[in-house]
Amino acid sequence: MLKASLIADKYYKIGTVDKRIYGSFIEHLGRAVYEGIYQPGSPLSDERGFRKDTLELVREIDVPIIRYPGGNFVSAYNWEDSVGPVENRPSRVELAWQVIESNEFGLNEFTDWAKLAGTETMMAVNLGTRGIDAARNVIEYCNFKGGTYYSDLRKSHGYEDPHDIKLWCLGNEMDGPWQVGHKSAKEYGALAWETGKAMKLVDPTIELVACGSAGLGMPTFGDWEATVLDYCYDTVDYLSLHTYYNNHANDSADFLANTLNMDDFIKSVVATCDHIKGKKHSKKQINLSFDEWNVWYHSNEADKHIEKWTHAPHQLEDVYNLEDALLVGGMLITMLNHCDRVKIACLAQLVNVIAPIMTSDTGAWRQTIFYPYMHASKYGRGTVLHTIKDCPVYDSKNYTDVPYLDSAVIWNEEDNTMTIFAVNKSFEEEMTLSCDLRQFDNLAIDEHIVLTHEDLKAVNTESAPSTVSPVNVSNDVNDNGMFTLLLPKQSWNVIRLSAKTK
Ligand code: AHR
Fold first, then answer.
1. DSSP string for residues in 167-195
2. Is residue 207 flagged as an active site residue?
3. Average pLDDT over residues 420-441
4. DSSP structural state of residue 318
5. What is the pLDDT of residues 7-63, one digit of tens each?
6. What residue ranges in 164-260 does DSSP mark as E strands?
7. CB 293 within 8 A of CB 331
8. Full-model pTM
9. Pocket test for ligand 1, best of 24, 27, 351 (most atoms within 8 A of CB)
């Protein structure tokens, strides 16, 4: 039995969770849009062609914001192709994923769908093949009230009111050589500065995300962030981070230790943002938008055999297992513990493509990673507290002193509730977690939810959708604010507490 402990104090705060940390991402890629959220003619869709079963699952997660339309896709995207009468919209060769894009579903359909899903749009502009001109036009189309060419074009398409999209990405992964129109840091920094300036002239209420480098492992990492911010510090509000982990080596202990890599990544980007802040004698703080994060590798081999230039093929359809859900939970915990700087994050992606939600012609189901994501979004809102934590550690191939316990404590002052998220990374042993919560009056446990399975590689499929499902347990003890929680081996845990009036 492993033994861990933590102490939390309600006055010792990391920060308030920005709900956009539970964002997601829908790209025109594979079956994310077509067959994922939109399938006209299907008995599972409404009269607009929106999949009702997908909508229900998206609402279950309570996704606050969704990045759209890419991703790599956006770097050769003509937004004008995706609006207006559907019969006039062109089919295009889609260069990022080498498929055919029909443009049947576009910008206006997405904003309609987002309303039904109860979510906001985080829109990306094309800084690969296009630039300032297309960006100033698309924001005029989306956000300007009327009386101008593009705002009136929107009205003529049936949208009298502006979409009022508040958050915009200035391109995507622009240092990646795979990106159509990829750029050097200087080229991108200068373009992001001028594009952002023009966009904010059209609508000064928007917020902008500049591209950080495509990952911590990129040769450009570090210099890219510093150079880009040097150019566009005054016009942007956030810098992006992207990361995907894999277990190609089939080394689960090392795989779960990747939370340490994510933690380092965040700290390095914060340091770079603050370095440029100091250099510029600026009072403004740039925060982080972790707008692509997930596990991605199961589909890599199958994707090599996809026929090119088809419409909406089965692409990036990872089937997630329990250990993936444990890492996704650990990544959410890592970001929560940096909620003072990570304000936006997008689980990439939402439906069918490296996604928590899968669909077929006959239904939709929850992958294993659905659960930590849904739990965090539903119960992880409030103030994240610093904790003093003590727990056993292990060494893995690439990491030393990996804590067996990942944890975050969120206190919600409004309704006097607390949520503890915890991952026990041990594959052999249960863990007792002693929590000293005596600073909080009359706390009691409402429920302890556990996601686990004997088999780390267990998955959910359409025919067996509940193999890995959360259950409620009740083995915990409360001794006057000293709680002893029992965390099963290889488990994701959600402990929900509230203050009881005497
Ligand atoms: O999410 C899949 C792809 O991963 C995105 O299109 C791209 O931005 C990243 O490389």
1. EEEE-S-TT-TTSTT---HHHHHHHHHHH
2. no
3. 97
4. P
5. 999 999 999 999 999 999 999 999 999 999 999 999 999 999 999 999 999 999 999
6. 167-170, 207-210, 238-245
7. yes
8. 0.97
9. 27
